[in-house]
UniProtKB/TrEMBL annotation, chains A, B:
Gene3D superfamilies: NAD(P)-binding Rossmann-like Domain, ProC-like, C-terminal domain. Residues 2-106 form the Putative oxidoreductase/dehydrogenase Rossmann-like domain. This is DUF2520 domain-containing protein. It comes from the Bacteria. Residues 127-252 form the DUF2520 domain. It comes from Pontibacter burrus. It holds the Pfam family Rossmann-like. PANTHER family: CONSERVED HYPOTHETICAL ALANINE AND LEUCINE RICH PROTEIN (PTHR40459:SF1).
């Protein structure tokens, strides 16, 4: 298929190259900053770099928009596309309706459930791609395109995608923050920052193999009041961390009672 | 060295076998339940199984106690050992002083920073083992013993070990709980429980390679009030999860301002 990519950031970078390698043709790469578009386009033989959102002369079966969530509505409003083109965004948190202003053959969502950095290679075959379309044709063309790069393609509507995003905030954003707090506590104690890494890796791998609630360990689930009290004492200079500690301890104990 | 193991649970199971494989001799395995001691001892040629804490006739350079934290003080009080023996516990959360009632040549701590399950093999060489001793001799003998099974042996006193344990509660116990919440949210949405696994793995691996605070993503760090509000709406039937969401969002935003 002929694909145009709007955006030249981390998601665009990985998607464009995976799609090209899978035999699709990238016709153009857009970025607000032409140099950024060119940096990606140069890796995609035949792709033009552009800083214009007027694609009425650019042949594309599908245009994928991979811009920051906050820029999505604005980009959608300014975009001009050929009438037979399907347009999809790649965001986990935005509904498909944010694209409704585009005069296209259909709009949709093409959401790779992964975090990308330009320099870190990703095995796209293992990345789930969640598809939604406003027409049967849009849905099926987006699904076909996704299947050229991933073996894990599913249909998920905007409401469910929002619930997935919420689950990801707990599993990834909040988890990352707790790992950051832990790193700070190690630094305060003058301990090496990687001392807990084998334990963290084992915890994550156990939580993948079982329901995490069934393999919960630590003072909260044992209701070890002495240790809990000592930990709160150690956190006495940081009421914010004390409050997080109390709250998560309580939450673990509520599950324990179930 | 001649080693006696008190306990036959997950930690005892892995330590005893690793120590034996490294050329040490396990002279005895204790468990409150003789059959449990026997189940481990049978895997250790020459080891006796016992349900008695009287080791005054059991030759041992070092006795390692690997029992639940709550049982430690009681076991220590009831133990009888030969006067030249060193006794150490394997707990991350307990001070060395819990062993002070034992009439031994010295007491200490031999703490492997890892979570163990009998059925899951562990590469002990990569497991940090943290040593503390009440005498120079105890410290150096425990350190030597640890070095027979791990390449990551360090000296850490009880105060620092307590801080490490606190950091581990954030990085592992709390993280596991958030992964459990995320799993429940996926189930509520009728989505597959492994849908976020590639994203979780990438998040953890990024958090290991960088300080997690510098690679934080998601609505909190972007201060995306629309998404935050929608997520709190999705959690409206669970005030507890709403409160965790608010608290961690606030905490992420406070770090953002630094």
């Amino acid at each position: 298929m002929n694909i145009t990519i709007v955006g030249a950031g981390n998601v665009a970078w990985h998607l464009a190259q995976a799609l090209q390698e899978a035999g699709n043709t990238i016709t153009a790469v857009y970025s607000r900053t032409l140099a950024n578009a060119a940096e990606l386009a140069i890796r995609l033989p035949g792709a033009a770099a552009t800083d214009s959102l007027n694609f009425s002369n650019t042949p594309a079966d599908i245009i994928l928009i991979a811009v920051p969530d906050g820029a999505l509505a604005d980009v959608a409003e300014r975009m001009k596309v050929q009438p037979q083109t399907i347009v999809a965004h790649t965001s986990g948190s935005q509904p498909v309706s944010v694209l409704q202003t585009i005069a296209a053959a259909g709009v949709g969502v093409f959401y790779p459930v992964q975090t990308f950095s330009k320099r870190v290679p990703v095995n796209m075959q293992q990345v789930p791609i969640l598809i939604e379309g406003t027409t049967n044709d849009a849905t099926s063309r987006l699904q076909q395109l996704a299947q050229t790069i991933s073996s894990k393609v599913g249909l998920v509507n905007s409401e469910k995608r929002k619930q997935l995003h919420l689950a990801a905030v707990f599993a990834c954003n909040f988890t990352n923050h707790l790992l950051g707090i832990s790193r700070e506590l190690l630094a305060q104690a003058g301990l090496p920052s990687d001392l807990l890494q084998p334990l963290i890796n084992e915890t994550i791998s156990k939580a993948a193999a079982h329901h995490p609630f069934t393999v919960q360990t630590g003072p909260a689930v044992r209701n070890d009041q002495n240790v809990i009290h000592e930990h709160l004492q150690l956190l006495r200079d940081s009421p914010e961390l004390q409050e997080i500690y109390r709250q998560l301890t309580r939450s673990i104990q509520q599950n324990r009672k179930l």
